[in-house]
Design a protein that fits this description.
The protein is an alpha/beta fold and about 350 residues long. It contains 14 helices and 10 strands.
Length: about 350
């Protein structure tokens, strides 16, 4: 067997779903209950995700009907659809977004030995309403000609006087920043975190704009010396097809600050079963598929994220950036802190 056929065979055995002979191509939105279908509302927009859906269908015969949008858009859609919603699975790229769906009553608890074994306790909802399948660290991109790694080895240093006017970061309402600041509030309390946010504002080289890759490129262009970014954006740039982005990563490197000496802040990509899922069994099997070693390995390899499971080896090229300690804080702590985080950041002048 080829390696890919081996993956399909092992997935089919693990998932034990009967084949229905249907393809994994996107079906019309609004497909409700039906044999051999799972309706995925996804706020992830990566090429590798389509390959995952195809693998799932080939292994199980269950067709994936994908509906894409931003997390707020999909949450609003599920709310408006109510009990008649065709959504089986909600997928998002941040624990804070998953928490928002949870708080809206859109995710149902799942009891699955497969998921509980594959996903560490701190990377899933304590009540089983969502599970993390990939990790990403929120860290620092720095100009190697101007910054020493030891100068960015804690989160405090990013907001310190060393980097006055030398920091690039995206807006305060970005969910990645909200989750990071939520984690800082959880670890430090509001007073110290507010002081940190004021330091971030004092250190801005420009007003927040663009996405994470724009921050990394700004460091490469000399606009700033350091930038906050998710690790996988940098890894994708370093391993991607764009020669300009690869060139940036020759002089801009990643630093992994530590939070209270316990490791870098990590977030997740994950998903949960919709409360009104018309295809609940298929939805659970789909989540179990996403937690499989094969799926975690493929996403890590193609998208630069780290597998959630400590038992899944990090593949190249991501493995070159995997030698760091991850903070053990439960990602379930981020969401409940987001409102406080937003208010604190706004008060500090972080736009």
């Amino acid at each position: 067997m080829t390696p890919r056929l081996t993956i399909f065979a092992s997935l089919a055995a693990a998932l034990s779903l009967s084949a229905c002979g249907q393809s994994s191509e996107q079906a019309p939105a609004g497909q409700a209950a039906g044999e051999g279908v799972v309706n995925v509302y996804s706020a992830r927009h990566y090429d590798v995700d389509q390959r995952l859906y195809e693998m799932f269908t080939e292994a199980t015969g269950v067709r994936v009907n994908r509906i894409e949008g931003s997390a707020p858009q999909l949450i609003a859609r599920m709310q408006s659809e109510g009990a008649a919603s065709p959504a089986d699975v909600f997928v998002a790229a941040d624990a804070g977004a998953l928490w928002r769906a949870q708080e809206a009553g859109l995710l149902a608890p799942v009891a699955s030995d497969i998921l509980n074994a594959a996903v560490p306790e701190n990377l899933r909802d304590p009540k089983g309403r969502w599970f993390g399948f990939q990790r990403r660290a929120r860290v620092v991109a720095y100009d190697t000609a101007k910054v020493q790694p030891s100068e960015v080895d804690t989160y405090e240093e990013i907001a310190g006087p060393r980097f006055r006017g030398k920091l690039c970061v995206r807006s305060s309402d970005n969910v990645y920043n909200l989750s990071l600041v939520g984690a800082l509030i959880e670890a430090w309390g509001a007073e110290k975190t507010a002081e940190w946010a004021r330091g971030i504002v004092a250190n801005l080289a420009r007003q927040p704009e663009g996405g994470d890759r724009d921050q990394i490129r700004a460091v490469g262009a000399g606009v700033c010396e350091i930038a906050l970014t998710n690790s996988y954006y940098y890894i994708r740039m370093a391993a991607g097809d764009d020669a300009g982005d690869r060139s940036v990563t020759q002089t801009v490197k990643l630093g992994f600050p530590s939070l209270d000496g316990q490791g870098a802040h990590v977030n997740i990509s994950g998903g949960g079963v919709a409360t009104n899922a018309p295809n609940r069994e298929a939805a659970i099997r789909f989540l179990e598929f996403l937690a499989s070693p094969e799926a975690q390995t493929l996403v890590s390899q193609e998208n630069g994220e780290y597998p959630a499971s400590p038992n899944v080896a990090v593949p190249a090229p991501t493995s070159a950036y995997a030698d760091f300690n991850a903070h053990p804080m439960s990602v379930a702590a981020f969401g409940p802190r987001q409102s406080e985080a937003q208010a604190l950041m706004t008060a500090a002048g972080w736009r």
